[in-house]
Each structure stands twice: as structure tokens, then as C-alpha cells.
Amino acid sequence: MTRSDRQMSHPGTRPPVNAPLLAPDRPRRVVRGIAPFLLVMAAVLLAACSNSNSWRQKLMVTVETPEGARTAASVVSVTMRDTKGYEWMTLPQARGASYELTGEAVVLELAPGRYLFALLKGLPYATNVFFPDEPPVETAPRLADMRTSLALPAARYPLMVTFADITDPASVQRVDPDDLAASFGEGYALSSITLAITDEKVTKGKVEAVLGWWCDYRSKYFVDRYAEKAENEFARNIGGSHFRTGECQ
Question: How many whole angstroms separate alpha carbon 67 and alpha carbon 203?
């Protein structure tokens, strides 16, 4: 028996120098390493290849208060991409029409230090408002030439919230559009919410002007979603991205 044979016959001994290197998990590590790169490249290719349409839409909220009507609005930019024909590079759940939103929530001061926010969460897209019974990929190109507005039905309202303490994100509270008095007191009532196609610039700076802490919660929820208990369960599902898109200013 040669020296190499003797070494291989005893478990735990060092293999001969001419033995092949064993790295059974190396392919797996390589796949994990390049997976994020492949996902980014797929997204870039999809954006470059898919048909897209963009427009700006303006959400206006009017509320009756004891001091009279108060109104505020916000303009957001929307890009809709039609991924039909590129199914081979998209996940099944992402196929069809996808939307990209840039902008911020409506910020309406109803009383000193008391604000109503119409969030990006639940914000209706113009394709679904102006052409509710037609496929968005067919109606989106028509929006470029439209300059019109429409009062939203209650079913199309975005999520509306306020804060018990404007300095504390965990104090966020849901507002019932049919009962603003429950959140703000007697004499407060929602008058209307309208959506318009517009050429106005995208609204910037209003959210952070009121919520000075927004940057700290830009990419997280106001309450830890995995905490065993929370004093305000509603805050588990509300985060900075529901108020504004983009980076900190």
C-alpha cells in the first residue's frame, strides 16, 4: 500500500496533495451572490422594454370646519408600464400593468396643530377613476390629452389619518371619512375629494414641514410589526412610505 493509500484509508487524515479540491457548497454561494444582480438587471430590462405612460394627477381634499371650508391638494407623478409580451422576464404576480408613484400625501391643517392626511396608501390611479370599466393599459395613453377633474366616490377614497400627537408617529389614528367629528370634534365634516389630471409640478416639502421626524421612518413602520404587543395596533401598518416617496431632503 502506498503512502497516499494509507492516508485515505484512515478517517480524519489529511488527503493527498494531488486530491481534487472539494467545495460542494460553492455553486450555491455563487448563485446567492449573483441573484441580486440578476434581479436588478431584469428590472432594468423590463423598464427599458415595456410600454409606459406617465401623467400627473392632483388630489384635492375639502373639509367643512367651524371656521369655514379648508382645502389642500397634492400633485403626484404616475408611470404605468404595460409588461404584456415580456412575461418571460417577470414574476407571475407582476405581469400586466404596474404603477410607479412619485409624490406625497395631502396635508390639510384643520385647526392649529391638527392635521388631516390623505395618504398615498389607497390613492386611486386616474386610469381606474376616469375609465373604471376599461383595461388600464388601453386607457393610460388617453390621459396625456385630458385636463379634467372628477369627484371621487367613497369607494375610491385614499386612507386618511391624523395624529393624536403630531410629534409622535406611534400616535397615528385612522380617520373615518364619514365621521370626521369623531377625530376632530363637532363641526368638522368631509365635503369632497376630487382627482384631476394636471400639468402642475409634483408637490414637495409639505409632509416634512409638518412631520419633522419623517426621515427617521422613511423606510419603516411607525410601530414594530413584530413586537408582541403595541399600544396602537393601527400604527403597525402605517409607515413613512405611505406619506411620501423618495429620499430624505
Answer: 26
